[in-house]
Structures are given as structure tokens and as C-alpha cells.
Amino acid sequence: MNAQNTESSDQCATARIGNGLSRRSLLAMLGGGAIGAVSGLSILSSTSFGQEKPKGKATDKTPSDFDILNLALNLEYLESEFYTYALTGQGIDALGISGDGVGTKGETTNGQKLEFSDQTLFATAKELAFDEQQHVKLLRSLLGQKAVAKPALNLTALGIGFGSEAEYLTVGRAMEDTRVSAYGGAEPLLKSKEILGVAARILADEAYHMGNVRLFIAQKGVQVKPTDNKDILPPPAGSKFFCVDDKALSLIRTPEEVLRIARPFFPNGLNGTIK
User: Fold this and answer.
1) Which of 57, 161, 261, 268 could make a disulfide contact with 42, Cβ separation 3.0–4.6 Å?
2) Which residues of 39-54 are buried (b: 16+ CB within 10 A; e: fewer)?
3) What Å distances lie between residue 166 and 180, 219, 264, CA to CA?
């Protein structure tokens, strides 16, 4: 699938998730199960921002499957915009990826193209952007008319991201570590084996991202700071190449822990129920 094509058809989306699972059958299953497929974003600046007070509060009501998928879509919009701007200087709309949907559609501001000097990092950046674009397409296809619109996004809410390769890696490291922890926390909520299979494959993709970015951080000696009190830093700031605990298990985060860090990037709030 080419990133410059318009959003894939339902048939193409079905082919991506495999095992004959169509959008119609998946949506039918979502009506009664608990998906919990929440992807997360956390980006850090020169200050420790994990303690920032949230602008809103996630609903106390048990969220529906569609609510959680739409939270994931909000965060995928943010992540795909960050990676796509860094690579091309344009947003996902320039690639024909729609941001229309339920709620208020907003502009993406402060995105910039980054001139990569490291060709291996540049090649990795292309794959990161492509993968996140495909995640947006997949979630929008699964949600259909229930998909939320892309909200207003401020890509430099923390003052970093596009000024250098080190900034890009700092943002990417926090992003990928947090997303893996978000999926790890959500997967026990899944009821359907088919949906669990999809979530497991997305989690595996994010873990590949995480490992690559953390290795770049270590090799280039980029000093990073923790996103919150759960964070495990790679060298040189920390001592662990992998973001795992002393039992060799990856960290998990709740949706609220993820949102606490993500909210600054949504100046007008997220679209959907969980925000």
C-alpha cells in the first residue's frame, strides 16, 4: 500500500488485518466486547512534563469499544502528523488521508520538515511515517462513520521536535515507549481473539519502532528525560536498552496516564468520549 494513495477500501483493510476478518464482522464483534486498543503518545521537552495537570478528565463511565478505538485514532492522528511533517514538511491530508469525521476538525500547526543527515535514520523515519499513516487508515476503516475527525494539533506544544535529529529522536523515543505501554495495558481487556490478534500485531510493530529508536538514542548519546515516574530511560540518560522492568516485562499505562501527557498537543481537546 502506497502512502500517497487515498484511504484503502474495506477489502484492502481486511487484507491488512488478515484471517478473513471483514470490517462488518469486526464491527459486529465490537458492539458487545471490550476492545481497549489504545495507542498512546508521550513527548518530552527539557522539562519533566509528566506531572502537568490535565486539562480534562477521562470519563468515569465505562467506555464503549468505539470510544476506545476513537481515542486510539486521536493519538494516531497526532503521531502520524508528527512523523509525516518531519519527513515531508506536509501533513497526512497531503497524502490523501482524510481527517473528516465526528466532532470538530482542526488544523495541525507548527509542523516542519527535518533535514536528516544520518541516512540510516532517514530510512527509519520513512518507515515510521508510513506505519503510522497505515494505522490511521486502518482505524478509520474499522470505525466507518463513527470515526472522529482529526482535532486541532500543536506539534511543538513542548517546544521541541523538528530542530534537530536529537529532538526528533527524543520525541520518537517517548512516543514509542508510551504506545507500547498503552497497548500492553489494553490487551487484557480484549474479548475477541480476532481483535486481540490485530492489537498484538500493532503492538509488535510499535515494539519494533521502540527498539530502533532507543538504539539510535544510545548510539548518538542523546540525553532524554522521563515522561513520568514509570519511564525507563535508555543510555546515556539511563542504563537499559529495553523498556522493561526487573521481570523483563514491558511497562503498562492506563488511558488516563497516556492522556495526561498527550493533552498538551490538543489545544482544543480530543474528539470523542475519552478525552
Assistant:
1) 261
2) bbbbbbbeeebbeeee
3) 21, 11, 21
Q: Does residue 42 have a pLDDT over 70? A: no
Q: How far apart are CA 220 and CA 243, in angstroms?
A: 18
Paired with 201 in beta bridges are none
In 3D space, the residue among 49, 59, 31, 26 whose CA is nearest the CA of residue 270 turns out to be: 59
Topology at the third CATH level for domain 10-41+57-265: Ferritin (1.20.1260)
Q: Is the full-model pTM beyond 0.85?
A: no
Point out which residues pair with 154 in neighbouring strands.
109
CB 168 within 8 A of CB 114: yes
Three-state secondary-structure class, residue 109: strand
Contact assessment for residue 162 and residue 168, using Cβ atoms and an 8 Å cutoff: yes
Asked if pLDDT for residue 7 goes beyond 80, the answer is: no
Rg of the chain on CA atoms, in Å: 17
